Amino acid sequence: MGIKQFIFDGKSQTGNNIFGKMLSWLDSPLRLKYDDPMQLVKAAGIFPGQKVLEIGCGSGFFTPSIARLLGENGELYATDLHPVAVQETRKKVEAFNLHNVIVQMEDGMHTGFADASFDSVLLFGVVPAPVISTSLISKEIYRLLKPGGIYAIWTKIPFWSPSEALKAAAFERLPDQKGVFRLRKC
Ligand SMILES: C[S@@+](CC[C@H](N)C(=O)[O-])C[C@H]1O[C@@H](n2cnc3c(N)ncnc32)[C@H](O)[C@@H]1O
């Protein structure tokens, strides 16, 4: 078994401990000095009352900000491939008393959601993950978005570009906002 599978398949206690440590690091208060979750989520261009999918929620660093922006009439599906991430985000959703969030385990490359289900899909802090294909996940996100829906991507990796995502499906690129790439489903 490779190291990626060991950490990401969620089946080994040691692998889960390593993954849990990575999530704690991602949720450290120090991170707030560099990444302002509300500012980044606002840059994605989501609105109150929308139905939004977050892929790769991790520790739920962005989840409360998305939920607050959507308000009580909005609906957020916070998803992750890893059971430890799902568990940590659920704890956060309960601690913050967020009633408009459903947390569930999903592989963003092959989700169980119906076509054209979402106004926006956020892929924040996920690409380029070692276990992800930008092309495959972008095709799936295209399927999940309503016509005109927004695919928002934020990554810490310098010089990353959404070129592979743009090649994967019929998206039109909108101006970036605060380092958040925004692609609209044509
Ligand atoms: C670096 S963490 C970032 C978590 C969070 N978005 C943040 O910025 O703090 C990346 C997350 O993406 C998840 N992930 C990777 N591949 C995924 C996939 N195919 N589907 C869903 N989640 C995935 C990982 O399990 C991990 O929790």
Structure description:
The radius of gyration is 15 Å and the shape is globular. The chain has a single domain, classed as Rossmann fold (3-Layer(aba) Sandwich). The chain is α/β, with parallel strands linked by helices and 186 residues long. It has a seven-stranded mixed sheet, sandwiched between helices. β1, α4 and β2 form a beta-alpha-beta unit. The N and C termini lie far apart (41 Å). The model has no long low-confidence stretch (mean pLDDT 95). Bound molecules: S-adenosylmethionine (SAM). S-adenosylmethionine (SAM) binds next to loops.
Helix-strand blueprint:
Layout: H1 3-8, H2 13-26, H3 37-43, E1 51-55, H4 63-70, E2 75-80, H5 83-95, E3 101-105, E4 118-124, H6 134-144, E5 145-154, H7 163-168, E6 171-177, E7 180-185
Parallel strand pairs: 1-2, 1-4, 2-3, 4-5
Antiparallel strand pairs: 5-7, 6-7
The structure holds S-adenosylmethionine.
Quick rundown:
With 186 residues, this protein is an alpha/beta fold. The chain has helices at residues 3-8, 13-26, 37-43, 63-70, 83-95, 134-144, 163-168; strands at residues 51-55, 75-80, 101-105, 118-124, 145-154, 171-177, 180-185. The chain starts with a helix and ends with a strand.
Which key terms come to mind for this protein?
alpha/beta; Rossmann fold; 7 helices; binds S-adenosylmethionine
Low-confidence stretches: none
- Name of the top-level CATH class: Alpha Beta
Distance between the termini: 41 Å
Total helical elements: 7
What best-fitting shape do the alpha-carbon axes yield?
globular
What string gives the helices and strands in order? HHHEHEHEEHEHEE
Mean pLDDT: 95
Strand line-up of the largest beta sheet:
3-2-1-4-5-7-6
Number of strands: 7
